[in-house]
Design goal:
It is built from ten helices and ten strands. An eight-stranded parallel beta sheet has the order 2-1-5-10-9-6-7-8, with helices on both faces.
Length: about 325
């Protein structure tokens, strides 16, 4: 089966303002590298505006959170300018549509993978999602894309156990917050500490379903692989997921300006292969990957390229 690529031009229209690291050029850099003939076998679809998108969001976020984001989006449209939800998180005239389509991409990816129409999927989306807590937008994120996709897999496809594995340089405090008390949802994260948002300590374990692997500034591939193996892959195999969702942030790369880890493309190949083996063992190969961070354009493009190529090899 093929690998599914889900994206949309609206993700370029989400305007975070001059100098913001989470910028439209991230999409353009990925578009360029994935236009190579090596990726011709990808099945490409546009991220949808689904009729059930608000229903899916409300499985994770309360109504007042959705209402606040919608209101901010309406104000941004009227002003035709940026609305700051906090110092880092900005909405423009097209941000609400982008956020809904980013959620919709995850839903479509889960539908396709769970139904056996695709081996796996990569969602090239923005805004990202893993910092959005139950009732708070933050860290460039409006809705918790990965957590919403996980709950959708349970509600619509009967998945009993869903895992989110996050290798962004920043800890996914939002996903952890949402999963904290649910033993049938697994969250595993490698990330740099101390670094924004300040969460992700070893002691943060939820109900035995949260597995953090904090790394130190300057740590490179060997340390990352050791932590990923011992703190993420071991518990993941014990958990036995029906679906693996990847919060695929590429800002742990050594070139990235927002982090201090030293990963290279080979480390992302290794991590993707390791998750592929876990998915093959427990989940019939089912993986849905959603883009999170990655702010050096060259490093982002090259890292996404090898991540997607590895997903294609896993699905072939």
């Amino acid at each position: 089966m093929a690998t599914l690529l889900i994206t949309h031009p609206i993700f370029i229209a989400h305007d975070t303002g001059y100098g913001h690291p989470e910028r439209a050029d991230r999409m353009r850099a990925i578009d360029k590298v994935l236009a190579h003939e090596a990726y011709n076998k990808l099945v490409r679809i546009e991220a949808p505006l689904r009729e059930d998108v608000e229903e899916a969001i409300l499985r994770v976020h309360p109504e007042d959170h959705l209402a606040r984001i919608k209101h901010a989006g309406e104000v941004a449209k009227k002003r035709n300018g940026g609305i700051h939800l906090d110092g880092d998180t900005v909405m423009s005239a097209d941000s609400m549509e982008a956020a809904l389509r980013a959620v919709g991409a995850g839903l479509d990816a889960v539908d396709a993978v769970m139904a056996g129409r695709a081996a796996n999927a990569f969602c090239q989306v923005r805004p990202p999602g893993h910092h959005a807590e139950t009732d708070r937008a933050m860290g460039f994120c409006l809705f918790s894309n990965a957590a919403i996709a996980a709950h959708h897999a349970r509600a619509r496809h009967g998945a009993e156990r869903v895992a989110v594995v996050d290798f962004d340089v920043h800890h996914g405090n939002g996903t952890q917050d949402i999963f904290w008390s649910d033993k049938d949802l697994f969250y595993g994260s490698t990330h740099q500490m101390p670094l924004f948002p300040g969460t992700g300590d070893l002691s943060e374990s939820g109900v035995g379903n949260i597995w953090n692997a904090p790394l130190r500034e300057g740590d490179a591939g060997e340390t990352f692989r050791e932590a990923f193996t011992s703190r993420i892959l071991g518990p993941l195999h014990n958990f036995g997921p029906d679906l693996i969702i990847v919060s695929a942030g590429f800002d742990a790369h050594k070139r990235d300006p927002l982090g201090g880890l030293r990963l290279v493309e080979a480390d992302y190949i290794w991590a993707t292969e390791a998750l592929g083996k876990a998915a093959e063992t427990h989940a019939n190969g089912r993986i849905v990957s959603l883009l999170e961070g990655g702010y050096d354009l060259e490093a982002l493009a090259k890292s996404v390229a090898v991540h997607v190529a590895t997903l294609m090899e896993l699905g072939s």
